[in-house]
Amino acid sequence: MQQLPEPLKVLVGQLSKLPGLGPKSAQRLAMTLLKWPEKQTRDLGQNIHDLRDKLHLCDRCGALSDTDPCAICINEHRATDTLCLVPEWDAMLALEDGGFYKGQYFIIGGLIAPLENVTPEQLELDKLKQRLLEGTITEIIFALGTTIEAENTVSYIKELVKREFPHINVSRLAQGIPLGSDVKFVDKATLRQSLNYRQKL
């Protein structure tokens, strides 16, 4: 079997480290790049370099941005009294794609997970407290998911807020039956959450 030339072999090895790309997919992608015009491949390389060179974390919310503060934090049309807590930047992107939330964000940098040695001290909770000390936030919205790690993180931060910022209301995204679903097809855990977070009519 013919061996790959060393430069191609190195590129395939690097590409295969990306999520969802195995060796075969990485090799196909590398071969596609070889067929691109030289300028296009050089532009791609420059764009990848710029990711590390020009992007940084927003000092207020922790989002990746090419400005500091980021565009969301300086947007005068967004509400300044609600703060949505998300674990990572991709969760913030998902909410922004919906276009229905018009408040502020704060990325806490993960979830408390003792089995993975992720402790509260490793999250951005000191920065969160600094943000709350500014005095403009009246409500925190948890958008951390429904895993055990998310529940533990919500409980920890909720107690912190109650203890140090008792005037701030705490809420979370509603959990329950997805829109358009039939009750008979919903799992027991989701049904339980739906009952626990039922709404008055």
TrEMBL record:
Keywords: DNA damage, DNA recombination, DNA repair, Metal-binding, Zinc, Zinc-finger. May play a role in DNA repair. It seems to be involved in an RecBC-independent recombinational process of DNA repair. It may act with RecF and RecO. It comes from Halodesulfovibrio spirochaetisodalis. GO terms for biological process: DNA recombination; DNA repair. Belongs to the RecR family. InterPro entries: DNA_Rcmb_RecR (IPR000093), Rcmb_RecR (IPR023627), Rcmb_RecR_Znf (IPR015967), TOPRIM_dom (IPR006171), TOPRIM_RecR (IPR034137). This is Recombination protein RecR. NCBIfam families: recR (TIGR00615). GO terms for molecular function: DNA binding; zinc ion binding. A zinc finger (C4-type) spans 58-73. Residues 81-178 form the Toprim domain. The lineage of its organism: Bacteria, Pseudomonadati, Thermodesulfobacteriota, Desulfovibrionia, Desulfovibrionales. It holds the Pfam family RecR_HhH.
